[in-house]
Amino acid sequence: MGTAGSGDSRQSGNAGRSPRRPLRLAGTQAGAGAHGSGAAGASSASGSAGASAHGSVSRSAAPGARQSRPSAGASSPKGGRSRAAAPSSRPAGASDRASARGRGASPATQGVPASQHPTQRRPLGSGPAGHASGSSQRPSPRRQQGQRVNRTRYGYPTVGERLAKTTRRTGPGRRPVIGTTVQHNGSLGYIRRGPFRGNAQRRAARASLLHVLPYALGVLAIVLVLWGVGSLVQGGFNPFAGSAASGDASRLGTLSHAFADGFATPPAQAKLQADSPGAVVLTPGRVTDSGTGRVTFSAVGDNIANENLLELADAAAGETSDDQYDFNAFYDGIRDAVQSYDISFINQETTLGGPDRYGYNGYPSYNTPDSLADAVVAAGWDVVSLDSNHTYDTGVEAIQHSLEVWSGKSDDVLTLGSFASEEDRSRVRMVECNGVRIAFLSYCYGQNGYDQSELPNDYYAVPYTTEGMQADVARAREVADAVVVYMHWGTEYTHDPDETQLTRAQELADAGVDLVIGSHAHVIQPMAWVNGANGGKTLVVYGLGDVWSGYHDYPECIFSGMMSCEFVKLSADEAKEAGRKVSIENVVWHPLIEHWEGNTDTVYLLSDYTEEQARANELLAGLDDPYTWMQDLTKQVIGEEFTIDM
Known about the structure:
- By secondary structure, the chain is an alpha/beta fold.
- Among the domains are: 202-266, no CATH class; 276-644, 4-Layer Sandwich (Purple Acid Phosphatase, chain A, domain 2), CATH 3.60.21.10.
- It is built from 17 helices and 18 strands.
- The strands form three sheets. Strands 4, 5, 6, 7, 14, 15, 16, 17 and 18 form a nine-stranded mixed beta sheet that branches. Strands 3-8-9-10-11-13-12 form a seven-stranded mixed beta sheet, covered by helices on one side. It has a two-stranded antiparallel sheet with strand order 1-2.
- Helix 5 (200-234) runs antiparallel to helix 6 and helix 13 (466-477) runs parallel beside helix 14 (499-511).
- The longest helix has 35 residues, at 200-234.
- The N and C termini lie far apart (155 Å).
- Residues 1-95, 97-109, 121-135, 177-188 and 234-275 have low confidence and may be disordered.
């Protein structure tokens, strides 16, 4: 009877439909009535009412019938006990309709209970994976194709993958926010805009910088404060010693010197800039063994590179004709003497014009290699005049090149007499040492082959005019304690000063110049004191000769002099009485001789020179007793008023 009932139900439920293949239900007992009380154990077409060979039971459920769970007394294929079926008050078929709506049942399965639907695989990426037993997932298409899939360290999709799959979710008129995805590990993804844009590594680097930035700003603020305090102290403000002398850094207290040594701002620089904002100061505040208020000074004449000297310098640099020149050996004999003074002066007669236009030449149109400037600095000269009658020998471009060369050595030397502009010319050139400030000026009588009106300006080679000189001296005296003027003047090969020299020497003394240094005559000329209009005295050195020239057959042109003296700063009362802020003391004349022997040429002090060397000197070959001749000429020209060191 159970068999007949089952068959009737199947036939009535499937009227008008084609027969369906029975479902295989894994791990359940067959048996259910039309309302949950039907006979159990209905057999299939084979007549078996028990479990199948694999522990499964095949059955055909009647339409509208409700499948119940296995009874409590039924045994599972594994020998376990099945839980009792729980009755349901839900109308038959409701579960099937809901299942059909949720799964989007196809027309072929409409009206068929869910228990009879074929098992369907859920598509990848459509939601959380199902937990039904026996379901399996296929690899993604990219893995099937062998492509590399980027993942984060925790196995989640990268930010790039997330952004690629992001759909536009913003309303009309609003810009989408790109890159604000939060990964599962809690870190922010890529942020395109704003102060914290970029990936995580860049944001971390900026965060580290923001942590360090306050400390760096604090250190900078401390440095600026200390620098300001040091400037005040060096400018004359000393709270530890009451009131200090204005601009006299050497008289400040010990603590003030400690500040000054700790900072790059030179002593008295603050006051100096206030007095003369345009002043050019070399080695400001330098302190030497000479002591406070006293400066030792030396000066030599013209430095001329003739053709024969260029050949020696070319050979000294190694291979010849390679545009390499070494001039250092020429000054070995006087190097120590030059460097022993606080300030040393030289006149560079020839221009460093570079090799491009005319090549390197000697007399009559000079063009000297740039390396001569290195030798001058290495020898120890601090102040270099560039104004002579040969300044325009190779044109304006050569002058500009020469100025560039010397400008590159502005930390070591102070140049004057030739300037790049009128504004530069108007700036006071000054050296400060041991609390004494000395200003320097330079003038030339004219240029070879040119009238002054034919020259492009007055600052490439400064000419002498009485009015211009007086204005320059007045401006220099406002900021300096002493004024030194170099004059390129005189009649060549003449030991006595001419009328023009004497006239201009008086004009300089009346203007308040403390020291006048002269050269150009190629031979030595005397020194003299000249009284100024205000009662002060000016020391005038009319001609120092050529410190280095290589002249053959002209013994008097290779015999020159070095003048040395001391500038001593006077007190206010002493300065009022003397008409000068400094006095010039210990004036000494040091004869110099250029010695040429074989392939060498060197300048020596006569006090260090011997009679044997004098006889071996090829430049003195025409003299019977060259050493005595040099002594006699010095006494004849310089006289007995000043000390001669020989």
